[in-house]
Amino acid sequence: MACSLLPLPDISRPLVLKLTSSPKLWTLLALRCPCHCKTKPSLTKAVYTQNLSLSLSLSTPKIDSDRDPISLLNDRILRDYTKRDASRTAMDSKEAEKYIQLVKEQQQRGLQKLKGDRQAKKVGGHSGSDNGSGSGFSYKVDPYSLRSGDYVVHKKVGIGRFVGIKFDVPKSSTQPIEYVFIEYADGMAKLPLTQASRLLYRYNLPNETKRPRTLSKLNDTTVWERRKTKGKVAIQKMVVDLMELYLHRLKQRRPPYPKSPAVAEFTAKFLFEPTPDQKQAFIDVEKDLTERETPMDRLICGDVGFGKTEVALRAIFCVVSVGKQAMVLAPTIVLAKQHFDVISERFSMYPDIKVGLMSRFQSKAEKEEHLDMIKNGQLDIIVGTHSLLGSRVVYNNLGLLVVDEEQRFGVKQKEKIASFKTSVDVLTLSATPIPRTLYLALTGFRDASLISTPPPERVPIKTHLSAYGKEKVISAIKYELDRGGQVFYVLPRIKGLEEVLEFLEQSFPNDEIAIAHGKQYSKQLEETMEKFAQGRADKEAHAHLFYPDKSLLSDQALERLAALEECRQLGQGFQLAERDMGIRGFGNIFGEQQTGDVGNVGIDLFFEMLFESLSKVEEHRIISVPYQSVQVDININPQLPSEYINHLENPMEIINEAEKAAEKEIWSLMQFTENLRRQYGKEPYSMEILLKKLYVRRMAADLGITRIYASGKMVG
Predict the structure, then answer these.
(1) List of domains in the chain
(2) Main-chain phi, psi angles of 162, to 5 degrees
(3) How far, CA to CA in Å, does 435 sit from each of 114, 303, 608?
(4) CA separation (Å) from 64 to 68, 70, 182, 672?
(5) pLDDT of 619 higher than 50
(6) Cβ atoms of 124 and 182 closer than 8 Å
(7) Phi and psi at residue 200, in whole multiples of 5°?
(8) Gap between the terminal Cα atoms of the chain
(9) Distances (CA, A) of 466 to 241, 299, 447, 570, 595
(10) pLDDT tens digit string along 331-351?
């Protein structure tokens, strides 16, 4: 039999370990038969394993010495020790408790944000009906809020379709009471309203129309139980992933920024009266920077013109006033140029604070000059596009990263942005965040501030949705030109621009028309954008969104069109993002496709289970046990060949040294094994087995396992 063993990345601290990608590898010793037989081992202790799994064979034939399992394991231990940050200190039990408590508090705040007033029901007293969330909120749905046809989940029976609420007389009474009627695959169920209120959940978000694969059966709940179990497994993996993310983030340290009078002077220069939401965002960011020791990772969500930039400007001043650098990242050069102009104007009163723009419009010499200034700390605020994330850009003392519209960056850029979050403060600005960002914020795993109140002078953009027609296009453009305005005509791709230009020149021969796209020469593009950028005003703007024949569109595309039509008012960018999240389902919320996991049990039961698991997060912490307390009752005691015994100088002393090395730590055991091989060459198979038993026992101790035993083909 073969044992999948896990090298420990940092055995000096309590570990939170991941489930492996293979569902069969559930434990420290997840057995795999070398002949790939279908016998499934019985396991009595489930411990989450890391993706790093290594087969240490206890009975398979000896393999090539260069690639034997012990060598592979030692390589991984060595790699991990060399990668370890020398400044990383061990986390003792009390420190671990503190961080776990912080995570629990964070998820409770997230629960309140997530539920809000929707479906929020106070639970009497504090009797534990709060599903482990530690708050008075409940995920269960109010039957009166359901519409006929909505999909619901009964915790014990499964997924059904809500039909309605009707009065009926129960058998034991003459008085009619209200019943909730639910359709299942094999019949109709009726539940007293009070019972339904305790056991029913929504399957979807309120605006989501996704259908479950099948309805559950009333008379056979085995399929439902299996689906629920799959959901629990996915949730437990998710909890461990989130714990790793959060513990890593909470372990980062930087001194809080000072609350200096200079910051107050800077904020006093803001010419407008902040809205209530904006004031709260100012407070949130100020607390993140001046009262916390962990780097900020906050999302500021608000429509265009609602004041997100001022929130960022105050954060930038707080950071650069103490000698650190700030990077402002925008997805397009147009946005980057706008930010540069605003920042330059706002900081014009501070000659010691230097602002720079990295642009494709610059010459090679100008770019090199900027790179040197960034490296030497001569630029305090650097504005630009994804080029700021390149390997050639070396920061002198970066303290803050401001990201505008993160959802518009590519995958590689997002990964680079994520890498900054462990070392610097990060502020993300967005009108319509992507579902993953949005739900991480809503569930409390990312801090968020919502600015939904428009400034008094802000005029909403009027959105028009219609099927494409040349006459409609001409009419819309003519209206705008007649009132002295400018027009953007946007196509999804460069191909086709020339045909549109020809059509527009024929329709409006007396008006100046220009083309701009990313493959143009830098100077040409810059001149075009500079000419056009002078036309923004406080008039009511119009957005005409044209689509092809509706019969050619997918259901998702039609839903998105409906969402755009409904979310036209000021401040509804956030609601539009929520609708988009509902349309997409919950794919990529936590960085990988979770749609199937949520689909197994429905969204509200899934998140109730998630928060319940998070409330018991300390159960996922591994506490090591003394090496001597671990029993390895596997009846494999091979005899060393006589020629090997004669080859060794003192066999008993060597075996005792191996035991002492294993008792100390896995690093010592690895060093002992390497030294043994250097001195005496590759050991025979029987000695390899003895060493493997020591590795098994050492790692079991690190993972808190006190006994490993064999019974026939089973290991417990």
Answers:
(1) 143-218 (2.40.10.170), 257-451 (3.40.50.300), 462-528+539-593 (3.40.50.300), 627-709 (3.90.1150.50)
(2) -70, 130
(3) 13, 16, 19
(4) 6, 11, 63, 20
(5) yes
(6) no
(7) -100, 145
(8) 13
(9) 44, 33, 38, 21, 32
(10) 888 789 889 999 999 999 999
Closest to 546 (Cα-Cα) out of 444, 609, 476, 642: 476
Q: How do beta strands 158-168 and 177-184 pair?
A: antiparallel
**pLDDT, tens digit, for every residue of 123-159?**
333 333 343 333 444 678 889 988 899 899 998 999 9
- Work out whether strand 447-451 and strand 631-633 pair parallel, antiparallel, or are unpaired: unpaired
Tokens of 404: 């505008």
Is residue 311 over pLDDT 50? yes
Q: How many CB atoms are located within 10 Å of the residue 186 CB?
A: 11
Going 438 to 439 to 444 to 450, the CA torsion angle's sign is positive
Bridge-based pairing of strands 177-184 and 187-192 is antiparallel
Per DSSP, 477 falls in state: H
Q: Look at residue 370 and give its three-state secondary structure.
A: helix
pTM over 0.70: no
Structural contact between residues 557 and 492, judged by C-beta atoms closer than 8 angstroms: no
Q: Say how far apart CA 329 and CA 14 lie, in whole Å.
A: 37
Task: Identify the burial level of 113 via C-beta atoms within 10 angstroms of its C-beta, where 0-12 means exposed, 13-18 middle and 19 or more buried.
Answer: middle
CA 360 to chain centre: 31
Beta bridge partners of 56: 3
Tell me the sheet residues that pair with 450: 301
Does the pLDDT of residue 276 top 80, yes or no? yes
Q: How far is CA 492 from CA 229, 495, 567, in A?
A: 44, 9, 22
| Percent share of the chain, pLDDT over 70 | 68
SS3 (DSSP) at 246: helix
- Kindly state the tokens that stand for 284: 């949130």
Q: What is the pLDDT of residue 89?
A: 45
> 278 CB contacts (<8 Å, ≥6 apart)?
306, 307, 310, 311, 451, 453
* 393 neighbors 374 (Cβ within 8 angstroms): yes
Element (H, E) at 676: helix 666-680
